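User: Can you help me understand a structure? I only have the sequence.
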Amino acid sequence: MNSRFVPDTTADTGVLPQTPTAAVVTASYAPDLERCRLLCETLDRHVSGVAHHYILVEHRDVALFRRLENNHRTVVDERDLLPRWLRVFDDPMSLFRRRIWLSFKTQPLRGWHVQQLRRIAIAAHAREDVLVFCDSDVAFLKPFDLSAFWSDGKVRLFRRDGVLLNEGHEHRIWSRNAASALGIDPLEISTHDYISTLIAWRRQTVIAMCAEIEKVHGRGWVEVVGSARRFSECMIYGRYVDDVLQGAGHFHGSEEFCRVHWTGEALSDDEFRRFVADMAPGQVAIGMQSFIGTDIGRIRRLIGLD
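Assistant: Let's start by predicting it. Here is the structure, written out as tokens:
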């Protein structure tokens, strides 16, 4: 294991230090390399208060992403984060175009599942007090300081209240599976949604959350979380904070710092300009979901980097 990533055993004091440190965490993969490069450039240009930036990738992508490293940015191999019994293969069912992670202890997992596991696992190996999660298809357009994520020793927990009241909402099953992983009574239904990009977690809380999952189930947290293919790391953390800790160490915020184009077609130049112009006053970044196919060269040109 890389000596930089030795599990942290620092005691949990329950509150942040008076001057907390913060790291940005990005889970990525080879097809998003250029998007991740753009994120790094705009992060370095616009964001202050970043003690470190961790980019979490599959083993075979490490060498590719190394070119993004510098004195405050590290590429982390998932082999240094996740158990070796979780093995990755080219998937014959997709004519070897996709990857699949297999084990005798979890369901078959796709890349987006394993990216979530990496984001949880980095907490035991990083040293910063606050982890700020930012997808690799995000670009910062305005100045932003990471101190926006804490106040009076508490971390800002992104939460939209009442969103899951609709029985048909797809996130409801993720919320139920989060409750199961945490040992929360299934009758305790949550209507809150915790999923977004550019959100923060308290690192010691993540470590405690993993310990709680292992105490409840008597086996490793990766096993437990990976036993249900429909899960969300944001839901698990949110429900742990609100339902197990009763909100300790956190305060809630529903405003999104990043405006994301989640679905639909790639934007034309004019549509992109309107999208940026319609950013809310508190929004400092945009996200163009990579699977939509918006050309990265167009994004660079329209935000003035080319």
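Now, to help you interpret it: The chain has one domain: 22-302. The two ends are 39 Å apart (CA to CA). Let me know which part you'd like to focus on.
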